[in-house]
Structure formats: structure tokens, C-alpha cells
Amino acid sequence: MAERLAAEGAAVAVNYRAGAEEAADVVSGIKREGREALAVKADVASRSEVETMVEQVSTQLGPVDILVNNAGLLATGTLLDYDPNDFDRMWRVNVNGVLHATAAVAPAMIERKYGRVINLSSIASVGTAVAGTTLYAATKGAVQILTKRFALELGPSGITVNAVLPGLILTDMVSEGHTEQEMQRTVEAVSAKAVLGRVGETGDIASVVAFLASDESSFMTGQYLTADGGRTDFLTHA
Question: How many CB atoms lie within 10 A of CB 147?
């Protein structure tokens, strides 16, 4: 997403919490293409760290026009065996992180009468039946409610707020803690549930985000765009 937005002409701040080396690699690649980029450390679960991050980004790159709330955690568990500490951390990142970042950039957007806020939710929140993801789905459902309500609050100032609902995308969050064989079985099982017969790649979501960040989506707000390859275990709930 950072690379795609940079290619479209944006100066990009790449937020990270622990992956300093990975963030630096992304920034270096963007700079090699002649675009501006900055890696900035902040845990989105911390409001003070987010506020400091936004201040740093605004000073070095200028006011924030586009916010992509992409930071997320996936902690699995069922009603009877979930870890309360894992759920608390997941809620603070997946939900409070959206709240903190949006609140930090909103005043300057309101002042300029322009802004794009793009939240990453998940099809888990709207009815897909994957065991062990109930509490994750609850956090992503909250993101959708925030999307609607922020759209209501910020719309009069010319700011759009929309959400993307990805299906299974091959990222580190998905593969962490799983063997290559386990991931292969997951990919095969999910692909079999998709009309297009495959799982997603990061570029599939980057294209949707780029659209929502552009003027081509200027008459859309409070919307959820699903990008999941046509998951049949979701279509029945559409």
C-alpha cells in the first residue's frame, strides 16, 4: 500500500512498531523511485505515541491528507479458551489504534476541508465462518462502526471515511506461527471457498486503497468495499 500510494504521487510515512528494518527497506525502495518517504516508530495502541508520530510526519512531510489505518493483530481463540490478555492487546491495536490515529489527523484535515481516512477491517466481521476468529471478528466489526460514525462526524468538513474488507491475504500476520505445510493447507482450503479460486496478495488490497485515496472516490463515504475473491461463505450473508 505504501509503495502504491507513493507511485500515485503521495509522500508516504511508513509506521512501524518493531519492524524497523522492514520499514526502512520500504522507504528505501520508495526513495529509489524518486518519491518522498519516512519511517516512523509508534505503537498505535498508545495515543501519545500516535500524536507524536503525526506531529513528526506533519513537520517532515507536511499535513496528512490520507490516513490508512492498517495496523492489526490476529489472536485466535474461542469463547471457552481465549486469552483475555491477547484480546485486550488486539482490541487496543485494532480498535483503539484506529481511534487514536484518526483523532490525531482529523483537526488538520478539518482545517483544510479535505481528507481521506481508509480503515482496514475484514470479512471476518460480516459472517465468514473460520474457527477461532470470533474475537478478532469483533474488533473488526468495531472498525466498521467507527468507519460509519467517523464518516458522519467528518463528512461536513469534506473528509471521506471508508473501509476495506479483505479476505485472506498472504501477509506476515497470517503466516506467523504456522509451518509452510500448514499455510499451504490453509491457502488450498480458502481458495476452494472463493469464486476466483485463489487467496489475495497485498497488491489486491493496495489497488482498493489507492482508489479510496483518490479523487475518483470523492462521492463515497461510510462505505465498506470487500476484496475477497468472491468468498462463498460470505456471499450468503451479503
Answer: 25
State phi, psi for 135 to the nearest 5 degrees: -75, -35
pTM over 0.70: yes
Does residue 147 sit within a domain?
yes
**Active-site choice (82, 114, 136, 224):** 136
User: What CATH number did the domain enclosing 195 receive?
Assistant: 3.40.50.720
The total number of structural domains that make up the chain: 1
Q: Which triple of cell numbers denotes residue 186?
A: 490453509
Query: Taking the chain (238 residues) in consecutive chunks of 10 residues, what is each chunk's mean pLDDT?
Result: 97 96 97 97 98 98 97 93 96 98 98 98 86 92 97 98 93 77 86 90 96 97 94 69
Specify whether 136 is catalytic: yes
162 found inside a domain: yes
SS3 letters across 120-170:
ECCHHHHCCCCCCCHHHHHHHHHHHHHHHHHHHHHHHHCEEEEEEEECCEC
Other residues' Cβ atoms within 10 Å of the Cβ of residue 47: 15
Write out the residue range of the structural domain in which residue 70 sits: 64-235
